[in-house]
């Protein structure tokens, strides 16, 4: 659509000069990065049309200046316009100029596209409400973002070009831990981290639960060695602090999450990988076949084994 505008006959064209800033240059061919360049545009082309025709999703853009004045996405381009385009969340130092959005999304909530399951999990681990399903189609992602006020996370720039998506982040990194670091850094979220406050599976809040009330669901070793437990009211898994907990904490720390301090004693924080959770009794599997014959203790009936952990993609 935008490309069609750019290919109109010359008589219907104007020429505008563009300059893109910071990481928006990643979307441009090398010869157009970090410098002014002039392009022909259809007279009816808007800033949004041309910016996207040049390869930059509008969701990546926070501020557009035309001839030094802040404009919206629907500004019609005129001959000899000079357009400066700044990336989202990088434009704060050019305030108090008007921004494109009336209001930024102050409570960061996300919807991750179907390819970002690893990142979605890490975001939940850090306490950020993140919708994700590996069956999501682009339209569903856009719908969820619009109706729930969520920031779209994707590595698909075409998805971000959908008009109804107003807030989105193009994720550059390839590995989940690096992606988490990128998002925390880019949106300045380090101070908002609430580790282990959400169920990694359901994205629902975890709440503390008395050991006595979950005792029957716990493996014997956990009954003996752990005191603090949380549960998810959606999947009814019970979580406790285990070796995965430490590894996840290290992952958060490696992602630049300086705010991740050890929990105070009176705060239950414990959440963990499915391998270290117990499902509710109604969902529990039989004890593993390898269970020792002498496990016929009073604990046995009260200690259904957690199912083997599913293999997780990284
Ligand atoms: Zn859950």
Report on the structure:
The chain is α/β, with parallel strands linked by helices and 314 residues long. The protein is built from 9 helices and 13 strands. It has helices at 2-6, 47-53, 117-125, 138-148, 157-160, 176-186, 211-214, 220-225, 243-254, and strands at 13-20, 37-42, 61-66, 69-71, 82-87, 110-112, 130-131, 151-154, 168-170, 206-209, 229-232, 238-239, 277-278. The strands form 3 sheets. Strands 2-1-5-3-4 form a 5-stranded mixed sheet, with helices on one face. Helix 3 (117-125) packs across helix 6 (176-186). The two termini are 37 Å apart. The structure holds zinc ion. Zinc ion binds next to loops.
Q: Percent helix among the residues?
A: 10-25%
Bound ligand species: zinc ion
Counted up, domains total: 3
Overall 3D form? elongated
How far do the termini sit from each other?
37 Å
Spatial sequence of strands, sheet with the most strands: 2-1-5-3-4
What is the strand and helix layout of this fold?
Blueprint lengths: L1 H5 L6 E8 L16 E6 L4 H7 L7 E6 L2 E3 L10 E6 L22 E3 L4 H9 L4 E2 L6 H11 L2 E4 L2 H4 L7 E3 L5 H11 L19 E4 L1 H4 L5 H6 L3 E4 L5 E2 L3 H12 L22 E2 L36
Parallel strand pairs: 1-5, 6-7, 6-8, 8-9
Antiparallel strand pairs: 1-2, 3-4, 3-5, 10-11, 11-12, 12-13
The structure holds zinc ion.
Task: Please provide a brief summary of the model.
The chain has three domains: 12-86, Ubiquitin-like (UB roll), CATH 3.10.20.30; 110-192; 206-301, no CATH class.
